[in-house]
Design brief:
Four copies of one chain form a homotetramer. By secondary structure, chain A is mainly alpha-helical. Chain A folds into two domains: 13-76, Orthogonal Bundle (Arc Repressor Mutant, subunit A), CATH 1.10.10; 82-129, no CATH class. Helix content of chain A is 50%, strand content 6%. Chain A is built from five helices and two strands. Chain A has helices at residues 13-27, 39-46, 50-62, 88-103, 108-120, and strands at residues 66-69, 73-76. A two-stranded antiparallel sheet of chain A has the order 1-2. In chain A, helix 2 packs across helix 3 (50-62). Chain A binds chain B through residues 19, 22-23, 25-27, 65, 80, 82-83, 86-87, 90-91, 93-106, 108, 110-112, 114-116, 118-119, 122, 124, 126, and chain B through 19, 22-23, 25-27, 65, 80-83, 86-87, 90-91, 93-106, 108, 110-112, 114-116, 118-119, 122, 124, 126. Chain A binds a DNA duplex (15 and 15 nucleotides) through helix 3.
Amino acid sequence: MLISLQLDSEIPLYEQLRNQIVIGIATGELAAQEKLPTVRQLAEDLGINTMTVNKAYSLLKQEGYIVIDRRHGAKVSPRIQDSQGPSPQLEEQLQLIIAQATIQGMDQSRFQTLCTQIFSKMTYRPTHI
Amino acid sequence: MLISLQLDSEIPLYEQLRNQIVIGIATGELAAQEKLPTVRQLAEDLGINTMTVNKAYSLLKQEGYIVIDRRHGAKVSPRIQDSQGPSPQLEEQLQLIIAQATIQGMDQSRFQTLCTQIFSKMTYRPTHI
Amino acid sequence: MLISLQLDSEIPLYEQLRNQIVIGIATGELAAQEKLPTVRQLAEDLGINTMTVNKAYSLLKQEGYIVIDRRHGAKVSPRIQDSQGPSPQLEEQLQLIIAQATIQGMDQSRFQTLCTQIFSKMTYRPTHI
Amino acid sequence: MLISLQLDSEIPLYEQLRNQIVIGIATGELAAQEKLPTVRQLAEDLGINTMTVNKAYSLLKQEGYIVIDRRHGAKVSPRIQDSQGPSPQLEEQLQLIIAQATIQGMDQSRFQTLCTQIFSKMTYRPTHI
DNA sequence: GTGGTCTAGACCACA
DNA sequence: GTGGTCTAGACCACA
């Protein structure tokens, strides 16, 4: 999986890293149970500090996207809890995006098409026990 | 229009303010050409520093959402440039949201329903010259 | 409020710090809304790194014990959400403590007396809205 | 006796193991003098390294909960020394738990009820010589 | 002036 | 070999 960081972005490095891994999980580039690179390895590959990678991994762990065990490092969570409805945060973010899209002159039909395109790349399917 | 800021949020105050005004424009709560409160007035109402409001207004101006003139203060832009396609930033943000929604177990149909609900509140229509 | 860290403890410094602040809130040594020392100040006072204090504050914030705003630093949360019942974690920890106490030969009556003593120092009362 | 380890827990495996054995002793699931599984056996059953089980057993031995001899392996101690009063560590841990319970909105009466419930499962009685 | 982020480098516990 | 913790020091965004 390819990760590219923008050093001059407003978004902190650890957050960019977190975002790209979340997308990687959703698209299936990172399969469930797949082992992530070690903190050290990824830091070296990306040319950033281990602490920064550490922070990204800690965040992902806290959010339930990955599990970390001291034996084998970090892995994509086997099963991520599916919530009943949309989280309020997600809804708020989506509202802002749609507001901006609307003002930019994008109508609902074009927006839906865009969503469909993006969805078609998401191969993650929640595992129900 | 009601604006509520979360002082303990991760999102900077000026950005929260900017976001709510953008949403206000999209929903029509703030009509095109409508006059915004003065920096001083809004700062006082919200109990925050004028510099913070100033920063939000500057950002909105730079993004084309509002126009500012010395005589009449800030107003919602009469017409906001409609771009040809989705801005890459918007697409990136949307991809992240959809990734998270997917992992949370939300399928495309539920997502589309949510979008439709949000769109139904957006009354902004771009003015074509 | 007095904070003393054991540099040779198994418990990480940031966690010791977190624990003592939690106890300070419960005993009332730190009142609701009370301002905590700045990250820098506390780090200097304790002779530890700012990052370590930062981590403790972040944890406390995440747990809802304090709020941090960029304007005035960290403050004890005005009102901490009271949950319906005991969290499973708390119950698990308590079970372990009681197991150890039992094996050490402490009977229930002595344990309850000890609890009563400790409770008598806790002046925190949750604010209900 | 059933032991379940959480591989992704913050608590080290050897400590989880130690804790569950302590609880087992207190509840009577592990009787005084009862033979524990061999290090090798338990490691295999739990799917963890023998070193990890070894570390847990060493800790339990050091704390006086079990005795180990080369011929018969590990056994629950026939009699665990009862100390005069609560160990300072236990008191500290209890104080932290009570602080957290208080802030969560749990009052003393509910806490005592919870303690009583937990105590009712503890069947360990120290043997006095 | 405040917390947030990041670095380079180190040591340690866990497994 | 792995992540976790900690330091000294720096720069930056926010207010």
